[in-house]
Amino acid sequence: MTIELKPSQEQIEETPGAIAQRLQGSIGLISLFIAIFALSFAAIFIRLSERELGPVATIFNRFWVATAILGLGNLFKTLSERHSHDSPLQKQHYTSSDLLLLLAMSVFFSSTLITWAWSLTQTSVANSNLLHNVTPLFTTAIGWLFLSQSFDGRFLIGMVVAISGSILIGLGDLHIGSDNFTGDSLAMLSAVFSAANLLTVEKLRAKFSATTILLWCSFVGAVLTFPIVLLTEDVLFPSSSAGWLAIIAQALVCQVVGQSLQAYNLKGFSSGFVAVFLLVDPVITAILAWIIFSEELSPLNWLAFSVVLAGIYIAKPSQGSDKVTPLGS
User: Fold this and answer.
1) 232: which residues sit within 8 A by CB, 6+ positions away?
2) Which string of b and e fits 17-29 if b means at least 16 CB within 10 Å?
3) What is the longest distance spanned by two Cα atoms in the chain?
4) How far apart are CA 10 and CA 27, in angstroms?
5) Is residue 260 part of a domain?
6) Is 269 helix (H, G, I), strand (E, B) or coil?
7) Is 230 inside any structural domain?
8) Angle at the Cα of 196 (from 193 to 200), degrees rounded to 5?
9) Could you tell me where the DSSP H helices lie in the chain?
10) Residues whose CB is less than 8 angstroms from the CB of residue 235 and which lie 6 or more positions away in sequence, other chains included
11) Is 262 helix (H, G, I), strand (E, B) or coil?
12) For residue 1, is it within any domain?
């Protein structure tokens, strides 16, 4: 007597294409987490660099150092392709709409950092971080109102849960009062700029590589912030090796690695989901500050961390997180 083992329905449906797509999605999530982990060091490096520089000077130096790193990388890649017989050099063509989008993206990102840094001088860190972290709300609202993006109930519930956890992180240090109105408004404005930046990068990723987008962002950002530094601050460059190390680390880790990986994943994930995933940033930053600066973490903080991660877990398998387009270069 012979026994036939029939494959289950799940095994039948698990085609090589489905397995590859699921694996690709997992790789995308890992690289997105690496991006957020790199970006979470920004607050640490800014705190170290602001021992010698003002907030705008810190941003300016971050931009021009990142431009130099990305420019050298592109030059090396161009020279390698020129002398390679396997991969012919392809020239990138820019239309007028491409140039407008690249310029707008650069302005949005620079405005995000400037208004956020400015808000920190006018309100508490807790208030600034709390209001800046409502970026997912603006991202989904703008995408729905103006770009015909759709989000199902599961995604919206996950977003609300994750934002609630983000609010809990800074709830103990929250200050409400008329004295904080200017700083709170600037922090909220930085969230709007951040949402606009994510949506613009998502649009640009249909044509341009992540490194090309970041090179434009860093170069235009340096040009925009240079006159602001000259007008508002006295010190332009760090005066010690420790100061330069903080700037270089911020440019390399946060701008080149973090922002590049974030832009890379905007081809595979929607800007709304990336904005929700960015709420892991304050979680990692708080843990790093606990390890490096011995800042206290209360039981409420740990509860908040769990709520943020739960929200992201809820939002991930929903309509509004993934795209049909596979992750690309």
Assistant:
1) 54, 56
2) eeeeeeeebeebb
3) 90
4) 22
5) yes
6) strand
7) yes
8) 140
9) 9-13, 16-39, 42-49, 55-82, 96-119, 125-132, 135-146, 153-169, 181-204, 210-232, 241-249, 260-265, 271-277, 280-292, 299-315
10) 52, 53, 54, 57
11) helix
12) no
Written as six digits, the tokens of 185 are: 């408004």
Distance in angstroms (rounded) separating the CA atoms of residues 75 and 204: 22
- DSSP at 8: P
Please indicate, yes or no, whether the overall pTM of this predicted structure exceeds 0.85.
no
Instruction: Show pLDDT as tens, one digit a residue, over the chain (329 residues).
Output: 454 545 555 444 556 655 655 666 678 788 888 988 888 787 778 878 888 888 889 899 999 999 999 999 888 887 777 776 555 555 667 888 999 999 999 999 999 888 887 787 777 666 676 777 788 888 888 888 777 777 777 888 888 888 888 777 666 555 555 556 777 788 889 889 999 999 999 999 988 989 999 999 999 999 999 999 999 898 999 999 999 999 999 999 999 999 999 998 888 888 888 888 888 877 777 777 777 767 677 777 788 788 888 888 887 765 555 554 434 44
- Residue pointed to by tokens 């130099």: 68
Task: Give, in order, the Cα–Cα distances in Å from 35 to each of 171, 260, 278.
Answer: 26, 8, 9
Token reading at 150: 């759709």
Asked whether residue 5 is assigned to any structural domain, the reply reads no
Query: Counting every residue, how long is the chain?
Result: 329
- Classified as helix, coil or strand, 266 is coil
Token readout for 69 is 């790193």
CA distance 329 to 255: 18
Give the total number of structural domains in the chain.
1
Cα distance between residue 54 and residue 320, in whole Å: 39
Domain extent at residue 278: 39-83+95-315
